[in-house]
Design brief:
Elements (H helix, E strand, L loop, with lengths): L5 H4 L8 H26 L5 E2 L16 E7 L5 E4 L4 E4 L2 H14 L9 E7 L5 H13 L3 E6 L5
Parallel strand pairs: 1-6, 2-5, 5-6
Antiparallel strand pairs: 2-3, 3-4
Length: about 150
């Protein structure tokens, strides 16, 4: 006679999922933290610049004589490098980054990136994704990005 039946003494064939769920939760927390830290690193100190219609001199030069680059984001999300005479279409943010670095290397722009302001002329109907991409691309190179707006005419 047995006090316990033989089947009760056998080990169970169950698989413990608790460590796997803990691991997945930790991975989710890690990637969420990385995503938020990237956004906070490149999204800080973003200021708007106002263009006043009454100014005779439309340039926005500051007291520190900072050089300005004008970029345009159209309603369809396309990019243009704006000059005084013409706008040059850019394929994507990588092309913008290459052109910025090329102009620094050839001496058109100063070597001190703090003296360069990138002004973003954004169409009101432009989607958010291209706007965020160009801000991140400019910030990754160490330049200051400033969205520009024109006040509504009365």
């Amino acid at each position: 006679m047995n006090l316990f039946e033989h089947e009760e003494l056998k080990g169970g064939t169950n698989f413990n999922f608790a460590p796997m769920i803990d691991f997945l939760f930790l991975m989710l927390a890690l990637f969420a933290t990385l995503a938020m830290s990237r956004a906070s690193l490149f999204d800080s100190e973003l200021t708007l610049v106002e263009i006043k219609q009454g100014d005779e001199n439309q340039t926005l030069r500051s007291k520190n004589d900072q050089q300005q680059i004008n970029l345009s984001i159209a309603a369809n999300g396309s990019y243009k490098w704006l000059t005084e005479f013409e706008g040059y279409p850019m394929e994507d943010t990588l092309a913008l980054q290459k052109e910025l670095m090329r102009q620094v290397e050839i001496g058109v722009l100063p070597q001190d990136k703090g003296k360069i302001e990138v002004l973003l002329h954004i169409d009101q109907k432009a989607p958010w994704k291209p706007i965020a991409e160009v801000i991140f691309a400019v910030r990754e190179l160490g330049f200051n990005a400033h969205p520009v707006y024109e006040p509504a005419s009365e």
